[in-house]
Amino acid sequence: MAQPFFLPVEIFRQTLLFHQVEKLVDEFSWRWHDCSADDLPLVKIYAPAEQQEREAHLDLFMQTLQEERKQEARFEDVEMQERIFAHIRAFFKYALGFRPAEVDLILDLGFKESTKKFLHLARQFDAAMAPADIFQACRNVWIMNGLQLMLGLKVRLTPAIFAYSMLYPYTDNYLDSAAIPKEEKIAFNDRFARRLAGGNVAPTNEHERIVFSLIEKIEGDFDRSRFPLVFESLLAIHQAQTKSVLLLGSVELAQKDVLRISLEKGGTSVLADGYLVAGRLTDAQAAFLFGYGAYLQFLDDLQDVYEDERSGQRSIYTLAVQTTSLDLITTQTFDFGERVLASQQGFTGRAVKGYTDLMRTSIQLMLLEAVGFAGKYFTPGFISKIEKYSPFRFSHLKALKDRHAPYYMSMFGRLI
Predict the structure, then answer these.
(1) 3-class SS at 107?
(2) Contact indicator for 17, 279 with CB cutoff of 8 Å
(3) Domain 98-390 in CATH: superfamily?
């Protein structure tokens, strides 16, 4: 398979982490093919009456968000913060059915303070950053806070967590943009790779100055000589992002290559999360984080299948819809995720089991929602079969999205 943007790939080949990543891609490629496409590993079934009851709580949550949107205060206002988190707590409990202990994991133990601090610092760092980009970065903060919990570390926003999460909008989205010429991407990619490797590289424009300043924040948290794998993990995700450019282009790719690129991009992303949280990881911890990241990548790709098919962005799901429905590959995705989460080992935090259960519930809910919104890619029989595992009817979710889509991100923009 031909590689674009050769330099980042070549620089990463010289690191100790390179061979570990190659082995993990091989391992999880095998695990993917070993997963079942026959049985859904889902347990909780919702009767229609219970779905309607939960939908009432969902509607109430959306209405209260709209009411908060009308307020003049921003998220820095303490009273607004407490109201918003109270709304979220009620939504998680009554609409999604999370247990009190699970809600406490989300809204206590430092998660809430980390979120508030991140939103404040993100606005200070770049007041022009779009709310959608800040939300994307904030999602990564939550993942890294969860890893702190699993590793027995204090849940807090560190400079490294802030910097790595902010890098997403400036790098991943930059490389995915069709508006930026390929030559410009190649030049940026080369300089970025050299800077990640510790080279003395001067920024050539404002975009690079911002990116390099974020790397400096990570260097302030982790000494390169003591924690080399922190920076090798950054090179690993950079190589994966570089390869992922192939997914939107004219280069012919076999299905196995698309799978491997997806596994590597998702896996190295959360692997880097782990190194930037702990500095060092055991082999068992690294393997779990890689698999967890791959699962999250599959979730993103399934959620984006409609947009990706229209834009020509390849994923295992856009390839599948060319010949069949997404019934079997989605069942396979659920099974893959369940096997990954069940294989978790090597973490010693006091809330490991509770947080693993929370991850399982949260991702399954998002996968179910993705199926509901992408109904045209599934058979009616599959939709009927899987809808009973959702706390909300798919028809209600679609109607709600149509009514509130213009308000959701503007609400987030108001809060930040």
Answers:
(1) helix
(2) no
(3) Farnesyl Diphosphate Synthase (1.10.600.10)
